[in-house]
Structures are given as C-alpha cells and as structure tokens.
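Take a look at the protein record below and tell me what you see:
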Amino acid sequence: MGQASPVALAPGSTVLTLDGALPVEHLYAGDRLVTRHGARALVAIDRVTLPAGTPIVEMTRNALGGRPDRDVWLPAAQRVLIRDWRAKALYGQAQACVPAGQLVDGEFIRLAELEAEVTGFALRFGRPEVLYADGLELASADVLTVPA
C-alpha cells in the first residue's frame, strides 16, 4: 500500500445532525452534530486531499452487525467505535475505538487503495468526539492531548 492514511470522512458520507442526516459536503463550522455525548457544534471542517494510493477500507452494508447503512469506504486510519463481539474478542473490552484498517476481514471489510485523488472531510469539535455517519460511530479528527 502506498500513502499514509489520514483521518477523514469520504465524500457522500451522511452525517447525523440536529437538522437530520446530511451529506458531509453540506456541513459548516457551527453546525450541530449528534455525538455520543449529545449535540456538539463543529469547530472546523478541513478538506483533506487523499491522493491516489491512499489505503482505504471498503465496508459492505451491515458488515458490523447492522452497520453501516450502505456500502462505504473510509481511510484506513479513520477510527471506528465498535461495541460488539469484535471489541471483546480483539481487545478484551466492551467497546474500542480502532482504525478501520484493523477491522479488515478480507470478505465484508476489505483493504484497498484509492485509484484517484479524492477530497475527504476532517470534522473537528475542539475535543475528541464520536459522531454518527452512515450508521457508523466514527471518531472526529480531533487529537486527544494529554498534559506533560
């Protein structure tokens, strides 16, 4: 696999907001999204260039026990919150937030590469959040900072 994989949502991802499910391309800073911690305002939306060769994970509809809502792809580094047998079997926890690339099973969740450059969308809240996109629970692009 070629390029490093950034954290971003693919174009066409449907994100759950207080105004309903909207394509990620239609979001703006200040929009309020539904997160695991309630409604949170977006601080920023960064457009991220995903060059050809970027590692991606293709997930078929229902690959994660009823999720996602449709066939989707994510950059391999995009973190996904899992709360099913996978979290227990793979991490010994009831839930885990893991890069999509670690969920690859070769059948329903496959590793691939982008064939052409694509613009992705990194959603930031000013602190890490878990948002809902295409029925998946995805980590925001915010980085957890721990004081030294």
